[in-house]
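ok trying again, last paste got cut off:
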Amino acid sequence: MSNRTRSLLQFRRSSAALALALGVAFACTNSPTASEDAPAPRLAKPTCPGHPSCNDPPPSGDQVDLDLTLSDGDGSAGDALAGDGQGAYQEGFQGVGAHLSGANGNLMFDVDQYSSGPRRVEIDLGASGVWPEAITRIYTNNSDEPDLRDMEAGESTTARLFVEWQDGRTKYDLRFGTNCLGDKFNAGPNDDVDTRVNIDNVGNWIVTPTGNAFLCLLKKGNKPPDETLIINPAFTITMVRQP
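nice, full thing came through this time. structure:
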């Protein structure tokens, strides 16, 4: 091999080595570092509500499961609403729904809310009718009243209360705080206040009528319901928070 050929090979090897070194240097210079070009670590989404960055509405609250009794619970005579003699009605047991709503705190009681069960309610309105084994739904409808879940011991409020049941194909509705057309009252012996129910919190919730009520016989179509004034129906609903 001539001296000229050896010189040419050495030059080519030196050029390749220099190019490789420059390539490595360029790659290192453009590699992102944690302090410069690397993307910032993704922050965990804040837990809402409660975090300062949240704009979520406040939570509506939790459902309060109840053990509920009607009057003395043994179906004795003299009470407009009474139990069936099988003890307390318990949320989620024997098909019963008995709770304060998680949405608004209203009482929601239904003897067959979850399934067709054995529980019934005795309804005795004297000359207006007696239903000894009614499949019954009882609820409050308070959009402008304090949330029952927020009541503290010693507090009292009033509420509109509805009792619904069916006898064959005939539907009945016993209403406290409104007549059968859904109207509230402004004054008079059968006004809104005198036909509501009173709710006391003595550690448990105690519901008793403030005065009269309206028995509504509901009709099909747009026909107005038949309305009967029920004078001073007596009963007691006791609601105990389940542990």
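cool. Confidence is low (pLDDT under 50) at residues 16-59. The helical segments are 3-29.
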